[in-house]
Design goal:
The chain is α+β, with helices and mostly antiparallel strands and 211 residues long. The chain has 9 helices and 4 strands, in the order E-H-E-H-E-E-H-H-H-H-H-H-H. It has 2 domains: 79 residues, Glutaredoxin (3-Layer(aba) Sandwich), CATH 3.40.30.10; 101 residues, Glutathione S-transferase Yfyf (Class Pi), Chain A, domain 2 (Up-down Bundle), CATH 1.20.1050.
């Protein structure tokens, strides 16, 4: 039994963390929680994550929720994977910036669009994400003609942003742009990303009713 436990559902943001776990290359145990049977709202799971959402990890008794936080935690807990700049590096600032841009403005803008909410300019001045146009323009400036968000190597920030872009473009919540497609596709070709997809796709197939 591993000291790293991953709570997820293969049709959730847990796919981001599956990719992260495959990147760090350390043993982990998976607990798949089914929405249809109420497992995310069970007393046992709510004691771990009171939001009743996935993903969650528990590492040596430490509970971490929220995708960006999990990515940051795992990158630091397993530095040998090289998924974060050193703590004393000047690249640490932009690395954090992009991780939390994903957790903040991107998540907010995508959620607003999914709810068919288009803020007026006046409303946008009071919202953290401003507008979808602001968010998309900022992302495009960050990824256009660049292999990586930070420095010259892949980090957890790339993993998180590529996941957002891929998911959003697939489901129509993020506009397809050439810069987004090139950036996301480059990182989705990583062996760990492919392994993660294979694992989660197999779990989805197993859950389908026979016949």
């Amino acid at each position: 039994m591993s000291d790293l436990v991953f709570y997820t559902n293969p049709m959730s943001r847990g796919r981001i963390i599956r990719w992260m776990l495959e990147e760090i290359g350390q043993p982990y145990d998976t607990r798949v929680l089914r929405w249809e049977t109420g497992e995310t709202k069970s007393a046992d799971y709510l004691a771990i994550n009171p939001m009743g959402k996935v993903p969650t990890i528990v590492h040596k008794g430490v509970v971490v929720t929220e995708c960006a936080a999990i990515c940051a935690y795992l990158a630091d807990a397993f530095p040998q994977a090289g998924l974060a700049p050193p703590a004393d590096s000047p690249l640490r600032g932009p690395y954090y910036r992009w991780l939390f841009f994903g957790a903040g403005p991107i998540e907010q803008a995508v959620g607003a669009k999914a709810m068919n909410f288009e803020p007026t300019p006046e409303q946008g001045s009071s919202l953290g994400f401003g507008s979808m146009a602001d968010v998309l323009s900022t992302i495009e400036q960050g990824v256009k003609d660049r292999a990586y968000l930070v420095g010259d190597s892949f980090t957890a920030a790339d993993l998180y942003l590529a996941s957002h872009l891929s998911w959003g473009m697939n489901f129509g919540t993020i506009e397809k742009r050439a810069a987004f497609e090139a950036y996301a596709e480059r990182h989705l070709q990583r062996p760990a990303a492919k392994r993660a997809d294979e694992i989660d796709d197999a779990l989805i197939a197993e859950a389908q009713p026979a016949g």
